[in-house]
User: What shape does this take?
Amino acid sequence: MNHRLGGTRFEVVATDTVTPTDGPTGASTSSASGYVQPEVDVPALTRLLDGRYAEVRNLVRSNLSAYSSILTDAETLSRADYRERVKELVVEMASTGQTGMGFPEEYGGGGDIGASIAAFETLSFGDLSVLVKVGVQFGLFGGAILQLGTERHHEAYLRRIVTGELMGCFAMTETGHGSNVQALGTVATYDVATQEFVITTTREDARKDYIGNAAEHGELAVVFAQLEVGGEGRGVHAFVVPIRVRDDSGELVPAPGVTIADDGLKMGLNGVDNGRLWFDEVRVPRDNLLNRFADVTPAGVYESPIDNPNRRFFTMLGTLIQGRVCVGGAGINAAKVALTIAVKYALRRRQFEASGEQEELLLDYGMHQRRLLPLLARTYALHFAQDVLSANLHDVLTGVREDEQTQRELESRAAGTKALGTWHATRTIQECREACGGAGYLAENRFAALKADTDVFTTFEGDNHVLLQLVAKGLLTDYASDFEWDQEAGLLDPEYQLAMYRFREEHMISGAARRLKRGIDNDMDPGEVFSRVQDHVIGAARAHMERLVLEAFVERTRALPDGDLKVALNLLCDLHALSGIEADSAWFMEHGRLSVQRSKAIRREVSSLCRKVRPLAGDLVDAFGVPEEMLRSPELIGDLVPMRG
Ligand SMILES: Cc1cc2nc3c(=O)[nH]c(=O)nc-3n(C[C@H](O)[C@H](O)[C@H](O)COP(=O)(O)OP(=O)(O)OC[C@H]3O[C@@H](n4cnc5c(N)ncnc54)[C@H](O)[C@@H]3O)c2cc1C
Assistant: This one.
């Protein structure tokens, strides 16, 4: 043992529930405490993770392998050529059916929302410009036509959207307003004389900005604009607007009245053509209003089955949450790629002699375990939470569950899971890059693209903080406490872990609610009160989401039949739960829910769990099923024979 390095292998075990299983260990090893190390059946675990959409996920995996040269193209082609290559790939993939699974069968789709989410999530093992272009074309643009339009729009566009023949944009954000969509400055005025809408960019900061497919490939855009009928503002509605037309030589050129500019070089995702759009009195027929939730008669009468404008707006946006669900899932899967590379590297990379004979594997260092394994556990947790979310979305969009409460819960859960999943991606990818040392910095080893391309996941499809604020507003409305629990239960008892998470959530919600009420009671301006309490409110939303994520993991693990897989997932679940409490131990101590002793015991337990997970780590990342070609990194992971210890 190299004592210079801290002697982690000989750390004293100070918890009565756990005996360490340090050092190289074989399968199903039994320790003095009776703990039997489980053996992970990798294909069985992959089947569990892939769930009911294993076939879809495997189709995408094989396509990713077939088109793996795109990872090199991203580094070697010019930006213009890379964009074209990405577009070609998206259209080729459309022909395999994998990008159209969420559309109705009568328009060439697969008629299965859950399958479309599974396909999208899996696609994020590969080049993320391809992923985002798919998201823009089929999720945002196609999704808006499907969800906000009616049969006439479906008939006119969906078949060609599903094949990728008709490319389009989802033009919501403006330079001046991204999060606050209700304040958009683009206006659509109804002209009763010609029965047309006139679309206008009313001021410079009302230009559409960051719009995917706008700079090069989009022919149509779903444009979000303030509807004005007979001089009266009716709020934001969506319109189909041609932005490019074919000239005499068949080339696509900007449509009359439309100005298009390129957003230029971005931090990542440079295979996607993001751009800006200006509209100078562009006229579109009355039929181009996507009229599922509101319509304008030829004579200029505004009609909607939803009277309240605010409710109408949020109902409309609520139908578009699939994109949000997909981005959260994509973030979680991008984290799997990073972890697979970093864990495999740590299973072959050696630094510093430990026993005098050979250098120590990185993953045998306690610090390295502490850095990677809680992130691995959290990735599993988020995976199962994402599963619950996509199943709920599938049920709501297919009408299995239709009540308003379910819809509200779904929207909140989608917002929160997206925030947690994408922040997790950013954090995990960074930690994994560092865990691979200098090698992690070489573009070939994937982290350059992973970091640059996933960074914006925290911003698009809703900025994460703004999304958590949305979650919080629902919580404050529904708040009611009925909290009881046993504070002395065992650390590895899921009921204890869940109770800690619930306590934090309830305490934060009630505290925020009290502070808001106090401010209002003191006649303070409501906006000012909210702003002062905002960090508390967003903290409550985070705590709520953390509880939902842990619940999903606990429930999934509980439902497994007894056996090694259950033991392994229990270890991960404990690690996830306790490392979450450990990370927030100051808060729990401040609020009298964690004694100093118990806090120390949790820290020891987390380290102990890391040591138990360590021999399984290679199998646990293999089970993600990231295709070998997507890992690239030959020098990092080489021809690795899985090492168990
Ligand atoms: C690569 C890329 C692709 C995109 N693709 C599309 C697309 O295809 N179509 C489309 O319509 N849009 C697209 N967008 C736009 C994207 O959805 C917006 O950037 C996003 O919604 C955030 O809006 P914003 O940029 O105006 O940020 P802002 O809303 O200005 O937010 C800036 C910061 O302020 C904070 N903030 C905002 N409001 C509050 C508040 N009330 N309280 C506290 N803090 C607050 C946020 O947390 C954030 O950190 C894309 C963006 C990018 C970068």
About this structure: Residues 1-27, 640-645 have pLDDT under 50 and may be disordered. The first helix runs from residue 42 to 50.
